[in-house]
Design goal:
The protein has no helices and 28 strands. With 327 residues, the chain is an all-beta fold.
């Protein structure tokens, strides 16, 4: 289905809570609706030729640069999307429990669909380091039957895995976290940030930082808590700008008892210092759930946000850190 986005586009008069000494969002910036509900449940990923791709109800949706919307890949069953340094689309596919890569000509390659002879839970989000190693999270939301990834004691694992360029796969984080969701490797490959989002009663809603070794392994003893959402909705997707600040999707606009009874953890984008976890800014987003964000636009200063199946955008003061297109 194609429709002019002009019929959908409007701005929301939001108040941006940010430190005036370190502005994150452009003064007077407005949150703009770009695509309708159910077309942008997750993702997003920006490409200078294709526009913005998102994981939606019908598959991978596309918002082209001319404002036209279409379904880029039907019934894809994807969640996190990311273009690698060659402009290939790497995708987590929780429906088929795998991670794939699609070339510019449309050829699809399955990078991994099992570990240790066992199926994954639901590959969710991904990040790529400077050596082109792909890290992805593997939580399980919803029914928890047929969870095959377990430790030596038979306990379920909802951790993080690494795919090396030669195709080998390694588990880098296991039961150090409750339920890994968003993941991000820092620009210098020194850190791996993990959004630990267990939305069950008493579950973790925390953003962790781990030291990352040169060989791509994680030093579990360096686990550092950056931010805790308490009993509200925890963190989801994570991105980073050129100054290293973290942009974390999370929160809910109304309590969801008994699991998430907090009323003061609002839905939106939390901008967090990667060193001490200080909250630098907050962008409220009106539709629950706020799942992810990504930088794009010709100057990389447009932040695209997925929330409640809707695609939004807002202007930032600093370009985002992206792999593609290469700078």
């Amino acid at each position: 289905m194609r429709a002019a986005v002009a019929a959908l586009l409007f701005t929301l008069p939001v108040v941006l809570a940010q430190d005036a000494s370190a502005l994150v969002f452009e003064p007077g910036a407005k949150l703009t609706v770009l695509a309708a509900k159910d077309s942008a449940g997750e993702g997003p990923a920006w490409d200078p030729e294709l526009g913005v791709l998102t994981s939606g109800h019908a598959g991978i949706h596309r918002l082209a640069r001319d404002g036209k919307t279409s379904v880029h890949r039907e019934k894809a069953g994807t969640n996190g999307l990311l273009f690698d340094r060659q402009g290939r689309l790497v995708a987590c596919e929780p429906v088929l429990r795998r991670v794939t890569r699609t070339d510019r000509d449309g050829k699809l390659t399955v990078l991994t669909d099992s570990f240790g002879g066992k199926k994954y839970n639901q590959p969710n989000d991904l990040t790529i380091d400077s050596k082109n190693r792909v890290y992805f999270s593997d939580p399980r939301y919803g029914p928890r039957d047929d969870m095959q990834q377990r430790d030596a004691e038979g306990r379920t694992i909802e951790g993080v895995y690494r795919i090396d360029p030669d195709g080998t796969v390694h588990r880098v984080i296991g039961r150090e976290v409750d339920r890994a969701n968003g993941v991000l490797v820092s620009a210098d490959d020194k850190y791996l940030f993990v959004a630990d989002n267990n939305n069950d009663v008493g579950g973790a809603r925390k953003l962790w930082r781990f030291d990352l070794n040169a060989d791509g392994t994680v030093n579990a003893k360096t686990q550092k808590l950056l931010h805790d959402w308490g009993t509200g909705r925890g963190p989801d997707g994570i991105k980073q700008d050129a100054k290293g600040r973290l942009y974390v999707a999370g929160g809910l606009n109304r309590p969801n008892p008994p699991a998430e009874p907090a009323a003061d953890v609002k839905g939106g984008i939390y901008v967090i210092d990667p060193t001490d976890g200080k909250r630098l800014a907050f962008l409220p987003v009106p539709t629950d759930e706020v799942t992810n964000c990504a930088f794009g636009g010709d100057d990389l200063r447009t932040l695209y946000v997925t929330g409640g199946g809707t695609l939004y955008s807002v202007r930032t003061t600093t370009p985002g850190r992206v792999l593609w297109p290469a700078r």
